[in-house]
Specification:
The protein is α+β, with helices and mostly antiparallel strands. It has 20 helices and 21 strands.
């Protein structure tokens, strides 16, 4: 820390505020908030940081400015606004620059109701924003089906209506409008419709249902059944729309719900808005992390930004863990029941958003997807190189017979079947997995070295510490210990073992790195078992036919070439066998299988 920076830090106040870091070009590179400015800023310079970007940031700081505010809530809002304005290099930024749609109820006589992305401060009412145009249009379509409101842009002043300036349009004739432009609908009844529309937009359906049901019953009492059916259809449409809103609990009202899911580079924050027991909004944003920020830091920033963006004034917020958002808000951290289920639902939405994003990348940019997987495996498995080339070994023997081994190869996280190899165990007598593994690993890499072929970045051994130790012994003999990363995977708990490390690594069961290792292990097992079965099958056929008098290796070859299997030989007639093998051998074969059937 330079002398100039040291003086600036020491003179900072111990109150809430926002701090700004400038680099040598006097450009803002980072903006942060703090309950205690002096304590927070000092922490950047008084300790060694683990994250590389944080170390680079601290080295780049040449000047510090701060703004003192009254409360922590003010600091949150000010930080958010300054970040949006200056977009500092080291601050997290929401990857979300689109303008969201709003439903506008225009401030005018006989208000129009329409969709817009532009807010004009003229006293009009705006509801939203909605996270998708599809959602907003579905609600708008419902409103227009329920209420005959105007869509024209006429200026319906009293004077214009009285002088007959306008004529009704097609909407009037198809009963989409009641003709206020010609004075055919009074302003009181129109405003009553607008008030009901406001309730529907707010997801408060109770009073609207009551109004419609009263109208329907009155019309039915007057024997106006067609008109009553028309109102009944409207009630059905409204109930159908309400049923599509996720109902959580009628007692939960006007609450914002936030959850977060993070990977190495990004965080995904989901927001659910609940009104009258229904989820009426859902939105997930992706946030690029810059300085290895914690979930708490990211969520605090995202909550402020999303609530501003969606114009939320809810006084209660459900969150998965403690966050600091200042005074005036009730924070609830649910542990069980309906409230906890809502948090879980929000988290599921955040996870699905990430999965969808990664699937899109996999389809549109396979190379980017592969590179990300390789980087992830390098981090997860604590490797020095990305495991572009992986080889996995498995032994197969049943009751000590026909011991074989298999080596499968993965390149860029996918099976590369061209390089798969089978091995007959040559030097081991009996069922000895450890010795078999030592033999096959030695043979594999002795050959690659002799032929000057590329070596893998990672070797995976199907088995625990014993099999891994045997494979490591072979690498030592070949001088490859430490030059190739090697791990073992034990099937029972999916433990990852490393040489000379007694504590296994446990990867998340949903980890992409674990899935690739499991796929390689399963593929090696399948490939080895198939080879083993084929070998056993051939051994069985051979031993069965060798039991027949006067039948040797050469005769067996002729028989299998002609009949393909023991079953077909067994089913062949004596005449057919004589045509193939001659009279004497045919009689021996025929009698052998006849005697076998009689036993």
């Amino acid at each position: 820390m330079t002398e100039n920076i040291d003086i600036q830090v020491k003179t900072l106040p111990s109150s809430a505020g926002v701090y700004q870091y400038f680099d040598s070009n006097d450009i803002i590179i980072y903006i942060g908030k703090a309950k205690n400015l002096k304590k927070r800023v000092s922490s950047y310079f008084n300790k060694e940081h683990d994250h590389k970007k944080t170390r680079v940031l601290v080295k780049s700081i040449r000047r510090i400015e701060h703004i003192v505010v009254e409360t922590e809530s003010d600091a949150l809002l000010l930080e958010n606004n300054l970040i949006k304005k200056h977009k500092p290099k080291y601050n997290i930024l929401l990857k979300d620059d689109k303008t969201y749609p709003w439903i506008c109820i225009k401030k005018e006589r006989y208000p129009r109701v329409f969709l817009t992305r532009k807010i004009i401060r003229d006293g009009s009412l705006y509801f939203g924003p909605y996270s998708s145009t599809k959602t907003a249009n579905a609600l708008l379509d419902l409103i227009k089906n329920l209420y005959p409101i105007r869509s024209c842009k006429y200026e319906l002043s009293e004077k214009n209506i009285e002088t007959g300036k306008y004529n009704v349009c097609l909407d009037y004739h198809i009963k989409k409008c009641l003709g206020p432009c010609e004075g055919l609908q009074d302003i009181e009844s129109y405003d009553k419709q607008i008030n009901e529309i406001k309730e529907i937009i707010k997801a408060d359906f109770k009073s609207v249902f009551k109004t419609f049901e009263t109208k329907m019953n009155l019309l039915a009492e007057q024997y106006k059944f067609e008109e009553a059916q028309f109102i009944k259809d409207k009630i059905f449409s409204l109930k159908n729309y309400q049923s599509k809103s996720t109902i959580v609990n009628p007692r939960i009202h006007n609450v914002d719900v936030f959850s977060i899911f993070s990977d190495e580079d990004n965080s995904y924050v989901n927001f659910l808005k609940i009104s009258n027991g229904s989820i009426i909004q859902s939105h997930t944003c992706e946030i690029k992390k810059q300085l290895n920020e914690s979930d708490k830091q990211v969520l605090e920033y995202a909550i402020v930004d999303i609530r501003l963006k969606f114009n939320s004034i809810s006084k209660e917020i459900y969150v998965p863990f403690e966050v600091e958002l200042g005074d005036g808000l009730k924070l609830t951290i649910p542990k069980h029941g309906d409230k906890k289920n809502i948090i879980d639902l929000s988290l599921r939405n955040a996870k699905y958003h990430r999965i969808e994003k990664l699937k899109k990348i996999q389809i549109t940019d396979p190379e980017k997807h592969t590179n990300r997987i390789m980087r992830q495996m390098k981090r997860d498995l604590r490797l020095t190189k990305e495991p572009v080339h992986i080889e996995c070994f498995d032994n197969s023997n049943i009751q000590g017979t026909n011991p074989v081994a298999a080596c499968v190869v993965f390149r860029n996280g996918k099976p590369y079947k061209k390089d798969y190899r089978h091995y007959n165990i040559k030097t081991v007598v009996g069922p000895d997995d450890y010795a078999s593994m030592e033999e096959v690993v030695y043979r594999r890499y002795k050959r690659l070295l002799d032929e000057n072929q590329d070596l893998p970045q990672l070797i995976v051994i199907d088995g625990g510490k014993g099999q891994l130790s045997s494979a490591v012994t072979s690498l030592e003999k070949l001088g490859l210990r430490g030059k190739i990363a090697i791990i073992g995977i034990a099937k029972r708990l999916e433990e990852i073992f490393y040489p000379d490390d007694p504590i296994p690594l446990y990867l998340d069961k949903k980890s992409e790195s674990l899935k690739i290792i499991q796929q390689a292990r399963n593929e090696a097992h399948r490939f080895g078992i198939t080879f083993h079965r084929n070998k056993r099958s051939k051994s069985f056929v051979k031993s069965e036919l060798l039991n027949i008098p006067s039948i040797g290796e050469k005769s067996i070859g002729v028989l299998l070439k002609e009949y393909k299997s023991v079953k077909r030989i067994k089913e062949a007639s004596l005449t057919d066998l004589e045509d193939t093998m001659g009279v004497s051998k045919a009689m021996n074969i025929y009698n052998h299988f006849k005697e076998t059937d009689d036993v």
